[in-house]
Specification:
It contains 7 helices and 3 strands. The chain is mainly α. It is elongated, with a radius of gyration of 21 Å.
Length: 177
């Protein structure tokens, strides 16, 4: 997931590690963060794999030089591969899709449509699962009535969020752009 982010951010131009960290922190929100201990080893790995190329940059006279990273052709190719990879159904699916959307301007309309379609299938899969849980909770005589009421409300809340997301993705697919 973070591999896609770093390569995607470098598509728009060279950046230093601190800026990459700040942009990711902003993009993912206040709860999900990448540690410095994860970011810099990944950057070093990318250097070793030839996906990025570092150079020293001094912002102002007498200022401390920063190591800035730019994407290589191999890095551009790897980014495209990551964008074409199918979405996996796991705890990271939402974030991976959001990152892919962030970089839709760097891929073909076919890759965008494929990503949207995969995400739609993921949402529909979850909606079917939620419907099954709703039926199970509704029909389970061993669940006390008060628990059932709040359990069904929680399930309804989740289903409504999924329905809203499904409708949004369907509109994006219809745009074909």
């Amino acid at each position: 997931m973070y591999e896609l982010y770093v390569l995607g951010e470098l598509l728009s131009g060279p950046k230093h590690g601190y800026l990459l960290h700040a942009i990711l922190k902003s993009a993912l929100g206040p709860v999900r963060q990448i540690s410095w201990g994860s970011l810099y080893p990944m950057i070093r790995r990318f250097e070793g794999e030839g996906l990025i190329s570092p150079y020293e940059h001094r912002q102002e006279e007498g200022g401390r030089p920063r190591k800035v990273y730019e994407l290589t052709e191999a890095g551009r190719a790897r980014f495209q591969e990551l964008m074409m990879e199918p979405l996996e159904y796991n705890l990271e699916t939402e974030v991976v899709f959001q990152l892919k959307m962030l970089y839709f301007s760097h891929v073909t309309p076919e890759v965008r449509q494929s990503s949207l379609q995969q995400y739609l299938e993921y949402l529909e899969y979850n909606e079917e699962h939620i419907k099954g849980i709703y039926q199970s909770v509704s029909n389970n005589p061993h669940i006390p009535d008060e628990e059932r009421v709040y359990g069904l409300r929680m399930i309804d809340y989740r289903r409504n969020g999924l329905v809203s997301s499904i409708q949004w993705v369907e509109r994006e697919i219809a745009r074909k752009g």
